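Appendix B.2, paired examples.
Example (i):
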Amino acid sequence: MANTAAAYVCSECGYKSLRPLNRCPYCKEFGTLHPEEPVSLPSATGRALKRTHNKVQSVPLDQVQATSRQRYKTGIRELDTVLGGGLVSDSAVLIGGDPGIGKSTLLLQICDAVAAQARVLYISAEESESQIQMRAQRLGIRQDRIWVCSESDITRIVSEIDLLDPDVIVMDSVQTVYSPDISSAPGSVNQVREASALLTSLAKKRHSAILIVGHVTKDGSLAGPRVLEHLVDTVLYFEGEKYDSLRILRAQKNRFGSTNEVGVFEMTEQGFREVADPSGVFLDHSQDTAGCCVSCVTEGSRALLAEVQALVAGSALGTPRISSTGLDRGRLTQLMAVLDRKCGYRITGCDVYTNVVGGMKLTDPSLDLATTAALVSSADNRPVSRTTVVCGEISLTGEVRMVPQIEKRLQEARKLGFREFVLPAGNFESLQQQPGGLNRWEGIRLIPVRTVTEALQHLFGT
C-alpha cells in the first residue's frame, strides 16, 4: 500500500518540505512555502515490481544512429549567434526577462523570419489574437504566414498543435498555462512543471522547435521550479535597463552551441535592430576623462570592449556607500581592499560608485585591472589615456593573473584603433612563444605587468 506525505512547495524555487516553514531554506524567501497536493510515495514492493517489469535495452554507443537536425536561420545575426547558428528543430528554448523588456516583440520577429521556411504557431495565454495582430502591424510583419492562438488550457493547446502540425511553436508564457487535471492555480510549481514537461515532450516527439517564455522573479532568476531550466535545451535571458533602448540576449545554457554567448540589440519603433558593432555601444567618452578606463572582456565566443566608470568621493556617513551597476559588488569591495592593502590607496572609507557603460552585466574577472585603474583615476583625478585598453585579473596578493583568449581581445582592440594594451606578463610571454612572436601585433603597443602596482605606475607614473 502506498504511503502518502503532504508536501509544502516553495513558489519561487520549487523547494519541497514535509513541514510548513516560514522561510525557504534554499532561496531564503519568506512566506513562499504553500501546501500542495499530497504526493504518493510507492511502497518498497511497488518499486521493486516497477523495476522488474519496465526493462530498457542498452546499445553500444558506436551503434547509435545519428540524426541530423535542421537549423532554421532567423536572419537576425545576433540571435543566430546566441543560438549557436540558428533555431534547431525538435529543441526547446526558454526565454526569460523582466516584464516589458521586449520578449513578445522579439518572438514575433523570430516568427516572421522563420515563417518563410516553416509553419509557425504563436500561442499566447496573456494576449488576445487582436492584440497580437496590432503588434504585428506595428512591426511590419507579414501576417498571412503566422498562425495565432489565444488559449491557456494546456489540453486545448495540445489539440491545436496536433491539428495544425507546426514546425515552430511559440508559447507565451508557461506561467499562465494551466492543466484542468491539476487543482492548483496557474503559475504554481505543479502547473509550471507539468505544462513545461508536456510542451517539451510534445515538441520533441513531433520534431518541432518550441520557444517558451518564462517570467522572472524580483532578483532576475526564472520564476517557478528549477526543473524548468533542466527540461529545455537552451535558456536565454533578456537583459537591459528599463529606460534604455539597448538589450542584451545572453545564453545561460545551450546544448547546441556555446554558453554565455551574447547578442546585442537596440529597441526601435519597428522592433529590435541588431547592433553591428557591439563594442562601440559600450564605449562612451571620446576624450581623456578621470574615472574612466576601457577593458576587453569575452562573452561566449566573442570579445567586447567595455568601459568602466568609477566615482570616488568623501563619505558624509558613518558607513561609506558602495554602489555598483553592471559589476559584482563583492568583487568591487575585494578590489578596494587590494588597493588599500597592497597599493596604499585609502579608498575604503570613501563612497564608491561604479558603472559599466551600456548597462551590461559583466562577470569576467579580466575586468579587475580596469576597475582598479578607474578607481585610482577618480580618486587622484588623473585620466587614463583613451587609446589604452587595460586587461587582467587581480589576485588577493595584488598579482595580475593571466586571462584566456588574449588574442581575440587584442584583435578587437586593434580593430577599433586602440594603440596600447596593458596585459598580464604571463599572456605577454605566451604571445612571444607563438609563431611570429610579437611581430603579429604591430600597430598596438603591448605593456606587460605582473602586479597592480606596476600597472598603476605605468598608467599614472606613480
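Example (ii):
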Amino acid sequence: MPHNDTASSSAAGVAASDESYDATARILVLGDSAVGKSSLLMRFCENRFDSNFVITIGVDFRVKTINIQDREVRLQIWDTAGQERFRTITPAYYRNAMGVLLIYDMTDPKRMPPIAQMLTTGFVTWMNTRTRLFRSFLVGNKADMAAKRKKGQALADKYGMAFFETSAKSGLNVEQAFRAIAERVCDSYDLLSGIPPRAHNNGSVANSNAVKLSERRGNGGAGGNGGAAASGA
C-alpha cells in the first residue's frame, strides 16, 4: 500500500533528510487569482473541497508524499498568489522549481490571456530550454462547469506542454495531474536512480501498476502533449 502524508509548512520547516521518503520534488503552482490553485492543492493533499476557501496571500506551501515506482517521493508544492501585487514575488521561486503547473479557469475565457502572457514573457525566462518545457504542464480547472475546452489544448500544443482538464470540486484528474508532473520531474532529474525499491513487510517488492518512467520519454508522458489523461473520466 503506497504511503501518503500531507502537511502545511514553511520552507524552514522542511527537514534536510528523512527516512520516510527517498527523494524530493519541488513543484510550483502558477496562475491568475481565483482560478482555483489552492482548491486544487486542497483536493490533492486533503481530498476535500471548500467553496469558501480563502484566497492565498503571498505564497503558501504544502507537502505530500506519494509512491512512484515503489519509492517514496516527497512533493514540496508552492502555491503562489495570483493577485497583481504579489507577482513580483513569484519569479524568485522559479529558480528552485523542478516542475510547474500553470492553472487557468476553464469557465472564464478572460483567464486565458494572463496564461498566454506568462508563457511569452517572464515565465519563458525560466523555461527557456526544451527540458524545462518538458517539466511544465497546463491545467484547466473547473472542468465540471466548462463547455469549451479547445483553447487550452491549443495553447498547450503551441508550447509542446502536457494538458489536463481538472475539477477541484469533483476531483476530476487532480491526482493524475500532480502525479504526472511528479513523475516527469523524477524522470527529468533522474531522482530515483540508485535508490532501491521499498519492500513490503514480507520482504517482497510492491507490485507497482505505474508505467516505467523510462517508457515515458519521447512520448509526452502521462497526459502527453495532447493530454490523454485530460479528457479521461
